[in-house]
């Protein structure tokens, strides 16, 4: 039977169906009862297939349609084709949604889809991490009830999303996130948040760095400028004062040169890529070389430097960075210890790892300073032009050099009891002695 049903075709088909009943009824002189019987049979036939259609649509677990006759063949076939098309569209849509969610999960930012009234309709894993959301448990809850930070609540209620808002993460107090809200689709919003903790930290460090460098250079430049103004009239300057001026300017120049060298060294360590750990470093020989190199600096104070070294304990790493660590720690011990003191150097095996320590008999360090000693330009002396001449960069260099060797600086000190600086090189960077078990 054709699929293009018109009113004339339906009437023609009905007449063809009724004609035999009419003829038999006319022959038997029961036309109207015969016609009524024909219509009743036609109605029962249609109700039978309506029942089969209902059972297929609501109770059947298969997509295949029941067998039909006449117009019902085309009805079943049409519904089946429609269901198949919808099934294909649904699968395609499900695949598209799955890919969208996979792409959203792969994003380096947190993403939350919001309705016009601010209720959550979807959130990726980073959003759950940054804001403590629970998906799908938080579905349909207003975002301002989930993120209660006053700055965000005010930002969202104002409705002006032209600028981003930065705030602390509700789930991690130490994390700072930048939040943007963008309208899209049919009155929906997309909330994007990214972790800017490191960027904020770097910006703060940049500002502190500029301020500290400016402050460090201001004192020596002021001293040199003053002496240069005095040298502008050399006839009025006594020989003794002239000698002092030259001595002070030389000292300030050396101090600035030392600071520039340390800044370059710190920058080189920070900007260097990850170490391959293929270079074998003889730490005992390196430490002895450092002790020899500081002998001139130690000649004035005459410290007794005692060493206890394991000559067979080598490590994988950067000799330059490890040398910078030992030299800075040893130089500090000599500078800050009173004359005639004792400095103990130790490089020994500790279980599977290797431990280095250096202790002195200096004045010690107050507990309020210990957590900040590795900050750039931080110094205990209030006078930046103190006799020690330090720049406040040495321990910062030590910190970053040790980080490249998966280690960190440990500081133990009490006022009046000296100080001890130590670090541990992990077992995976220890060179196994020949013949030993790996």
UniProtKB/TrEMBL annotation:
The chain crosses the membrane at residues 9-28. It is an enzyme of class 2 (transferase). Keywords: ATP-binding, Cell membrane, Kinase, Membrane, Nucleotide-binding, Phosphoprotein, Transferase, Transmembrane, Transmembrane helix, Transport, Two-component regulatory system. GO terms for molecular function: protein histidine kinase activity. InterPro entries: BphY/WalK/GraS-like, HATPase_C_sf, HATPase_dom, His_kinase_dom, HisK_dim/P_dom, HisK_dim/P_sf, PAS-like_dom_sf, PAS_fold. It holds the Pfam family PAS. Its EC number is 2.7.13.3. Its main location: membrane. Residues 212-429 form the Histidine kinase domain. It is found in: Cell membrane. CDD domains: HisKA (cd00082). Gene3D superfamilies: 1.10.287.130, Histidine kinase-like ATPase, C-terminal domain, PAS domain. It catalyses: ATP + protein L-histidine = ADP + protein N-phospho-L-histidine. This is histidine kinase. It comes from Aliidiomarina sedimenti.
């Amino acid at each position: 039977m054709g699929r293009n049903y018109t009113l004339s075709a339906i009437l023609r088909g009905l007449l063809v169906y009724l004609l035999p009943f009419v003829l038999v009824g006319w022959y038997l002189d029961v036309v109207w009862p015969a016609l009524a019987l024909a219509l009743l049979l036609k109605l029962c036939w249609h109700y039978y297939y309506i029942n089969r259609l209902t059972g297929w649509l609501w109770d059947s677990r298969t997509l295949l349609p029941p067998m039909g006759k006449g117009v019902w063949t085309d009805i079943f076939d049409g519904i089946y084709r429609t269901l198949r098309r919808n099934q294909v569209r649904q699968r395609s849509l499900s695949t598209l949604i799955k890919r969208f969610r996979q792409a959203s999960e792969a994003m380096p930012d947190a993403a939350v889809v919001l309705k016009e009234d601010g209720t959550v309709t979807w959130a990726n894993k980073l959003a759950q991490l940054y804001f403590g959301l629970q998906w799908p448990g938080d579905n349909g809850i207003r975002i301002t009830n989930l993120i209660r930070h006053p700055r965000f609540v005010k930002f969202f209620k104002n409705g002006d999303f032209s600028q981003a808002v930065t705030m602390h993460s509700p789930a991690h107090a130490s994390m700072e996130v930048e939040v943007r809200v963008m309208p899209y689709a049919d009155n929906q919003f997309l909330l994007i948040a990214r972790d800017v903790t490191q960027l904020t930290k770097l910006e703060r460090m940049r500002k502190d760095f500029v301020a500290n460098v400016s402050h460090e250079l201001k004192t020596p430049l002021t001293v040199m400028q003053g002496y240069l103004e005095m040298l502008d009239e050399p006839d009025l300057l006594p020989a003794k004062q002239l000698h002092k001026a030259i001595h002070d300017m030389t000292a300030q120049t050396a101090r600035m040169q030392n600071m520039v060298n340390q800044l370059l060294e710190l920058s080189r360590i920070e900007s260097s890529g990850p170490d391959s750990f293929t270079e074998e470093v003889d730490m005992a020989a390196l430490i002895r070389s450092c002790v020899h190199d500081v002998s001139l600096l130690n000649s004035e104070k005459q410290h007794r430097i005692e060493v206890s070294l394991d000559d067979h304990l080598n490590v994988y790493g950067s000799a330059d960075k490890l040398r910078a660590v030992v030299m800075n720690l040893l130089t500090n011990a000599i500078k800050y210890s009173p004359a005639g003191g004792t400095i103990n150097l130790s490089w020994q095996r500790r279980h599977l790892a290797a431990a280095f320590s250096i202790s002195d008999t200096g004045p010690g360090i107050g507990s309020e300073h210990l957590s900040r000693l590795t900050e750039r330009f931080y110094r205990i002396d209030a006078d930046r032009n103190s006799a020690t001449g330090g720049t406040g960069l040495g321990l910062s260099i030590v910190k970053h050099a040790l980080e490249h060797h998966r280690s960190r600086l440990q500081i133990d000190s009490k006022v009046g009891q000296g100080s001890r600086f130590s670090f541990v090189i992990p077992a995976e960077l220890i060179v196994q002695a020949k013949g030993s078990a790996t």
